[in-house]
Amino acid sequence: MTAKRTFDVLGGLALLVALSPVLAAVALSVAIGGTAPGGSVLRRRTVAGLGGRTFTMLTFRTKSPLAALPLLLHVVAGQMSLVGPCPLAPAHRECTGEGRRRLSVRPGLTGPWQISGRSELPWEERELLDLHYVDHHWLGMDLTILARTLPAVRRRRAARLPERVRPGRFA
């Protein structure tokens, strides 16, 4: 097992244990909220993994960043990594041709695309960030990306809230 995979397994297990009350609360909230069509609290999406092998990626049916918590199960199972390229559908244009090399590593829970602006980035820039990661990744880069992920998610969340309701702001 490589250092990256060992880190993924140990980190994924630690996060699953630490966040298990949050996982349960989000699942219960989605179930009670009635927003789950057919009663399912999980959304299923087929994505391309390592070597192009497909798997069904599970996320909660909520629009919050907590929707991604079930992805930790995929990290522990070896289908995903804590850090890697953005998971894409197998038929996506970035999984073919030159972009196929992105399939030489596991897709990530987070990655350069997450800390660099995510949906605000032009698609071509996200593609370049993913391919740069594929070509140059190492454990130190993963640790840096992980350290920058939570602040990046918080910044985007704060940017969407009106000024008067931002956390830490007082009228």
Provide a descriptive summary of the structure in words.
A hairpin with a 5-residue loop joins β1 and β2. The chain has a two-stranded antiparallel ribbon with strand order 1-2. A two-stranded parallel ribbon has the order 3-4. It has helices at 3-33, 71-77, 112-115, 123-136, 139-160, and strands spanning 42-48, 54-60, 81-83, 108-110. 26% of the residues are buried. The chain is α+β, with helices and mostly antiparallel strands and 171 residues long.
Describe the secondary-structure layout.
Elements: H1 3-33, E1 42-48, E2 54-60, H2 71-77, E3 81-83, E4 108-110, H3 112-115, H4 123-136, H5 139-160
Parallel strand pairs: 3-4
Antiparallel strand pairs: 1-2
Helix pairs in contact: 1-2
